[in-house]
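User: Please predict structures.

Assistant: First:
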Amino acid sequence: MDQVHDLSMAAIHIAVLMTCHNRRETTLSCLRALARQEGIGRVQVQVYLVDDGSCDGTGDAVRQAFPDVKVLEGDGNLYWAGGTRVAFDEAMKSDYDYYLWLNDDTTLDPRAVRIVLDTARVIRGTRGRDGIVVGSTCDPETGERTYGGDAPGNPSEPRRRQPIEPSNKPQRCVTFNGNCVFIPRSIVAAVGSVSPDFTHYLGDTDYGLRAAAKGFSSWIVPGFAGTCPANPNANRWTSPELSLRQRWRLLHSPKGFPPREWLIFNRRHAGLRWIPAMLKLYIRVLCPSLWRVLKRTRPKNSSALRKPPVAKLEPPT
């Protein structure tokens, strides 16, 4: 049985894993919010930041403002999954108690780390096994949920999974976005790092499903852990306003939806469902207007996802 950490008794060591590219002020703001965390007692935090080829002075600015941050250099071709993997692999050499994925455009609330630690402790004490803990984020202007955990659904169609709105208690999710994800040592030992098969998208979703395949559960924390605006350029490769050539180029770009990576993901997690998944991908890029019509005419209950009940977890005695 793994030890359940008590914040009042022993130091807890957390590796924070970040990657950035050419948004210096955003990255610095994220680190300032992390430095302002409250109620974490003897928790010791070490940040591993991959500066993926920034030309705006991000790395030097971070070294000057936060000299304890370990800045790792990338060549500009790592993106989210690659940068997180580099940070993860380096941090794993020191065998931390927990690993926190943190997007540099996420601004944590002052007690976010305390809340994810408490949630991890409750899950471990109640279920007898560690779980991954996910912090949901909301838009800083509207307060609407932007990223977090998803309810169970068809893994070959991640966009049709139902996002889970935070409540006042932990809720179980099937997988998650990588904006704020807290992973205990025992899970890292079993699952490892972010898969090298993914460049930007899918690395986080894949990790959650790989952990679930090994018997580990994932949970979102009560409330929002912080703010993060939604990506305004997501899925531009499906836009009928763009030419086919533009859509095709965007689809195959690292921040698009590379078909090879989508194929790997589906063959790993969806079995023979990879065939319709790939067909749908190409319909979406080749005939986006037709796809929208088909989507509107699809029966509403054909793939309805049930929102999971709020988990009745209580603090361990």
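Second:
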Amino acid sequence: MTDAFVFDLDAGCACLDFANTHDSTGEHLNTYADLVAFAAQSQLLTPLDAEWLHAAGRADARAADAVLRRAMQLRGALHAIFSALAAGRTAHAADLEQLNGELAVTQGHACVVADESGYRWGWAARELDAPLWGVCRSAAELLTSEQDRRRVRECGGVDCRWLFLDTSKNRTRQWCSMASCGNREKARRHYQRRRTASTMASAANIGKAS
């Protein structure tokens, strides 16, 4: 198996990280193995489940490709839903229908399991579409949390559509990352201010000369 792509999981919520797997740098879910890698890195799957899914995907490539197509449709719906939420708009009914269709499948596999800390949600089966189950639950939990859904933001960078949860103290975070989009946007605005000032100064000098 080739080395898995390492996903940037800085959005603060698994469903938003999933929505960000296609961005200005390109597509990051190119194969079913990439989808499994995302779910494993997001801790939506155990390492053993991920290993089983990789093998099952290789054994039935057609079925695995069908799951990947579903994943991309779900991702598009999630990005549209949360982008609308970040802009203060109501999500389109078709996008919610897409999520709810996958959520209905997810709920059929949900169960409560016991572990050393008590009880937690788990999954009662292994299926090729298991990487989508945790994403759907994450999206449903975010949408139904009045506090958290108000924190959903879309990056203000010119070429960036990343979604994230704004956990800053004053809820004023504008960029997905200060180290990338934030610094680039500040540099761009600084350049524009200097260029505007230079243009105005040149115009003033021309006016004086005439």
